[in-house]
Amino acid sequence: MKICVAQTEPIKGDILKNIENHKKLIDLSIKNGSDIIVFPELSLTGYEPELARKLATTKDDKRFDEFQKISDLNKIIIGVGLPTKSETGICISMILFQPNKSRMTYSKEFLHPGEEIHFVAGKNLPPITFKNNKLAFAICYETSIPEHSEKAFKNGANVYIASVLNSVNGVNKDINRISDISKKYEMVAVMTNFIGKSGNYDCAGKSSIWNNKGVLIEQLDNSKEGIAIVDTNTQKTIKIQLDKTIDKID
User: Fold this and answer.
1) 12 by DSSP, 3-state: which?
2) pTM for the predicted model, two decimal places
3) What Gene3D superfamilies does the database record attribute to this sequence (predicted)?
């Protein structure tokens, strides 16, 4: 199967504009044969904790119907990030759109210290099966929790997908951590990150792909939007970086 990570520059708090920019990268991934595309942490809003309560919604929000239609038509899984409402508060979540299936919500269980001011711990999904692969997900700080990746392995995952916001100061630590996870559990691993500014962070880009030996085999740069794709059967990769930021809608 072909796994695609999208590297984006978020538009602060503007879900509709971010949807349009997501769709352009999704279209690019489809043209290159992707079976799944995943976006960074809170990709539809940017990482803006102070806006989370105002922007929080649910997986059934009608604004996301287009993602479901694209998924159904092209047989592609789409994972987008946003704050979601739960019974206990606001979660940091990824909505997963699967072809001709109900939408699913993966919520960050292990919050980064300080996030509990604006968010509550949510519920992880177990790995999902698609085209004979078992895909495990992680949102940012969860990659630093050993029991999280161990649980993914024990549940049979052979692919580890990390949706993150990594700053210039923190990205290399996370890259080394995910490489170690990949090597330890012999999983193909990918990481998708922002560029530009989000919240108070200068985002580092460097969205990455590792083979199941923990070897970095593809990486985007630190300043351009784009996609990177890996074929889990052949380990071959594709990298497409845009010469300029995707045109934003006025």
Assistant:
1) coil
2) 0.95
3) Carbon-nitrogen hydrolase
Q: Token pair of 7, please?
A: 């590297």
Beta strands in the chain (DSSP E): 2-7, 36-38, 77-85, 90-97, 104-107, 128-130, 133-139, 159-163, 188-192, 195-198, 201-204, 208-210, 216-219, 226-231, 237-241
Which tens digits make up the pLDDT trace of 216-232? 999 999 999 999 999 99
- Please report, for residues 29, 79, 140, 237, the alpha-carbon distance to residue 103 in angstroms, rounded to integers and kept in the order given: 20, 10, 21, 28
Distance between CA atoms of residues 195 and 120, nearest Å: 26
Q: How many CA atoms lie within 13 A of 212 on its CB side?
A: 13
Contact predicate 45/17, CB 8 Å: no
Locate 221 and state its tokens. Answer: 């740069």
The 10s digit of each residue's pLDDT in 162-200 is 999 999 999 999 999 999 999 999 999 999 999 999 988
d(CA 77, CA 195): 23
Domains and CATH numbers, the chain: 2-241 (3.60.110.10)
How far apart CA 49 and CA 140 sit, in angstroms, is 14
DSSP class of residue 194 equals B
